[in-house]
């Protein structure tokens, strides 16, 4: 992916976000994450079905990288198991988003994963 | 988590339309004159080696001097020369190198003294930066002069370095911290001073020039009013001393702080100026070598000013470097520096006003503000704006600029700041504006 393609990729997720809707009801856990430095806010909704497959959606506001990351991650995560999600690594996410572009703003890029992990831990505590 | 299969998303065949063609053919006949009328900016730029740099294959357009300025080769060379020829620890060596080092070091102190109109070099205390200087006052003066029920006044526009030390002091001593608020145009609501100042007020801490709004505060008037109730006045000169003539006698303040790296000097060196009688009465800040006259196992006698407040081996090369920076700026003349910045910021205000959706913070009169412009651009997050500008080689700063309370008050999570200095060309402002249009193109295409 060259630089311009990386930018296009992020902008697409920012302008046409996937999985951007709240979830409610039985078994849904929500966690909030935010970057007080710059006002990025992410809320991750997590649900696990009978087969152990997750659905992840989000809501949020903020810079392109933080929101694109949440869209990409929510889409990627949906259909995976909790275990796979718990093992997701920040560096992998940064690489997937395009390291060259997000390198100066890794906090923005990883906010979604941080929040997803918080949701997983919260779920473990509640259940 | 490989995504290569997800690359071609949304935009047809993935080959980008050449939306930037619009900006490639720039009509040079419309450009501004390269330099303001006051300083020979091209000649100045030739002395700043870093300005030759390329960033992402583009010319560097450095608009972040308010965060830290660049250094002329004279400063770099002087420090290099010092380390190559004269370095030794200062102050008590009898040998030649130590004498040379001491002479250079103390000469630098005198240069700073003259630069700000201090009466004596004993009033010039070297610190690491303006932040440390403020902490020195809070620690040394504050803890012995501020008591339960006393009051400290600061403003809503302060940088965290001129806010948090007072918060800590107030909490520790049971004192109250009160604030002068900022009005819509970015100026202080000075009429609040009447009710804020009481006989319990011990200190008014105020910035001379806001690093976000650019507002130049009427420090002289504020100091006078502080004195009228028996309070002291500390001025944060981090943005003013590098950019305009500052004379501490004229301002009438009691303490002034500033940082070397914002005024063409090295990092790691800053200055606290304090009125001599105040500094004499204050206990030391950091303790150890150099700040003592005599030491036994049981105790110690403090050294004279300024050394009482300079513990341990100082940043010798850095102080010397700052002295050379002072020489450099004095050579240009601070009135000329200020005039250049007024012209530059006037041009910037004019050009920025053309950009739809751009909201500028702070006073609109160039004479009332320093050479920085902080703004928001509708629909584009400052981080994204800064990233896009960076890809054009333009360095600006995005965030809250260490002034979160101000941003909370303005209801803005973050802003973008472009700041100017002696080496800023007007065509760099043109480049900034072009970059802003490009960002709008990229971010608002549908």
Give the tags.
heterodimer; A: 127 residues; alpha+beta; Sufe protein. Chain: A; 51% helix; 19% strand; B: 446 residues; alpha/beta; Aspartate Aminotransferase, domain 1; Aspartate Aminotransferase, domain 2; 2 domains; seven-stranded mixed sheet; four-stranded antiparallel sheet; 15 helices; 37% helix; disordered N terminus
Structure description:
The complex is a heterodimer of chains A (127) and B (446). Chain A has one domain (3-126): Alpha-Beta Complex (Sufe protein. Chain: A). Chain A contains 6 helices and 3 strands, in the order H-E-E-E-H-H-H-H-H. Chain A has helices spanning 3-15, 64-77, 82-86, 90-97, 99-102, 106-126, and strands spanning 29-35, 40-48, 54-61. In chain A, strand 2 (40-48) and strand 3 form a beta hairpin. The radius of gyration of chain A is 14 Å and the shape is globular. With 446 residues, chain B is of the alpha/beta class. Chain B folds into 2 domains: 19-64 and 333-444, Alpha-Beta Complex (Aspartate Aminotransferase, domain 1), CATH 3.90.1150; 74-331, 3-Layer(aba) Sandwich (Aspartate Aminotransferase, domain 2), CATH 3.40.640. In chain B, the strands form 5 sheets. A 7-stranded mixed beta sheet of chain B has the order 4-10-9-8-7-5-6, with helices on both faces. In chain B, helix 3 runs antiparallel to helix 11 (316-332), helix 11 crosses helix 12 (334-353) and helix 12 (334-353) packs parallel to helix 15. Chain B is globular. Residues 1-30 of chain B have low confidence and may be disordered. Chain A binds chain B through residues 1, 3-5, 7-9, 11-12, 15-16, 36-39, 62-65, 72, 76, 88, 92-93, 95-96, 101, 104-105, 108, and chain B through 1-4, 6-7, 9-11, 14, 16, 381-384, 387, 390-391, 398-400, 404, 413-414, 442-443, 446.
